[in-house]
Amino acid sequence: MLGLVKANDKRHYLKESTSWVTKQKVDDDFIPSHNFIEDLDEIPFYDYDLRDIKKHGHNPAMSALAAIDNQKGFHVMTSRGCPFKCTFCASHKVHGRSMRYHGIDRVRSDFTRLKEEYGATTVIFQDDHLMGNIDRVYEILKIIKDLHLESVFQNGLTLYALDKKMLNAFYDAGVRQLVLPVESGSAKVLKHSMRKPLKLSISKRVADDCRDLGIYTNTNILIGMPGETKEDIEEGRRNLRTIHSNWFHIVCASPLVGSEMNEIAVKNNYLKGDTLGADYRKAVVETEDFTADYIQEMQYIMNLELNFIYNNDIKFGEYDQALKGLLNVIRVKKDHSFAYYYASLCFIGKKEYKEAEAHMLNAIKYCNIGNWWKYIDYFGLPKDEWMKFNLNGLEAHLNKIQNMDEDVHINSNNKLNPISVNTDVY
To answer: Rounded to an integer, what distance in angstroms lies between the CA atom of residue 150 and that of residue 70?
Structure first.
């Protein structure tokens, strides 16, 4: 941009530039090359005076942000680049693979300015690989602590770098929520389909350490990768129940333009329907191993399974934590019968029986006007409790959840009608 601004003959500059794209270049099959700013401190501070700052905030409907009460959040990016080669990611097409950083003094200056001039209370990190320099992360956490800012790490953090010492530093900086990019419960899918260097044991350890510290975790899971099979998905379902995260965000793998996944899907004619706007909610990949309808179906089933049937917070008797996720679902989707049912179990655990009855009556109400019976049948849930408020029956179910073996396997041969499967997040 700076070269274009300074050029005397701007048309000639655009024609000769290896990074600027014009219509003529597109017609000539031009392939642009990166022209990165190596020193990110050369990038000026964004002028928020150009916009209505009163309307600036973050979206509380997003699961990663639901725990943040304060809405004055600002997105920040303190680095560019990521050296990893995850097949589902396309960030390297924009930011490259080599790491580039803002200096720590610049980070402190920007965060201070956001707070003092614009009233920022939360910074939302968009770095692709924040953990690329461990010493730098400790310094950034100190800045967050010194400025009394809340922080959200929306893209997730490299799990191998989150040892107990690092997690303690996050907690000391006031961090109470983290996104864990686990991506799959199948070792085969992680290694071969995703090429993501992560072991299940690391994911389990980080989730457990976060739980011990009191850091709420949202775990991201993708299903429907080229090369993934139904058997891999079943293995993933079993393994994910051993990761004690507070909440799971199950999504359909989306073929982002620029990603290796998209190249594979295009080459093998795996794309089904309109991929524009799929946005991880809609399954658009269909391979020799599965249909798009199957992935759509399993995305919703795994969401119900991990966040409701096998809810870890309920299992460990941490009812207030469980209610954070369940009540957020109800706030976003008011007819979610499962959310009301499992919230009722939480209130029973808390011995708040009036709240338990109120939520159970809503579970029954929406169950009878929605399509929830097919899921009740699929998971083999006790039907009597869905007919009327039965305290003894609900207490028995709560006790069963807390003594449930993680290796118990849901009968995956049950088949739901793909046409009727809900494509909502919850």
So the answer is: 9
**pLDDT per position as a tens digit, 68-110:** 555 688 999 999 999 999 999 999 988 999 999 999 999 999 9
Binning pLDDT at 50, 70 and 90, where does residue 407 land? low
- pLDDT bin (cut points 50, 70, 90) of residue 423 is very low
What is d(CA 368, CA 342) in angstroms, rounded to the nearest whole number?
Answer: 17
From the list 128, 178, 287, the residue with the least C-alpha distance to 223 is 287
pLDDT of residue 412: 45
Is the CB of residue 210 less than 8 Å from the CB of residue 178? yes
Domains, the chain, ordered by start = 1-35 (no CATH), 40-277+284-290 (3.80.30.20)
Residues sharing a CB contact under 8 Å with residue 30, sequence separation 6 or more, in sequence order: 21
**C-alpha gyration radius of the chain:** 24
User: Looking at residue 5, what is its pLDDT?
Assistant: 84
pLDDT digits (tens, 9 = 90+) for 216-235: 999 999 999 999 999 999 99
In 127-246, which ranges are E strands? Answer: 150-153, 177-183, 216-223
Strands (E), 77-201: 79-80, 100-101, 122-125, 150-153, 177-183
Tokens of 254: 């989306």
Q: Which residue has the higher pLDDT, 42 or 32?
A: 42
Tell me the whole-structure pTM to 2 decimals. Answer: 0.88
Contact 359, 386 (CB under 8 A): no
Question: What pLDDT score was predicted for residue 426?
Answer: 52
User: What residues form DSSP beta bridges with 180?
Assistant: 219
| Cβ–Cβ < 8 Å for 421, 297 | yes
Rounded CA gap, 236 and 407, in Å? 12
Say how far apart CA 265 and CA 248 lie, in whole Å: 26
Name the residue among 324, 247, 343, 423 with its Cα closest to residue 66.
324
The C-alpha angle 206, 210, 216, rounded to 5 degrees, equals 125
Cα-Cα-Cα-Cα dihedral of 391, 397, 398, 402, to 10°? 160
Q: What phi, psi does 419 have (nearest 5°)?
A: -65, -30
The overall average pLDDT reported for the chain is 89
Asked if 339 and 426 count as a contact pair (C-beta separation under 8 A), the reply is yes
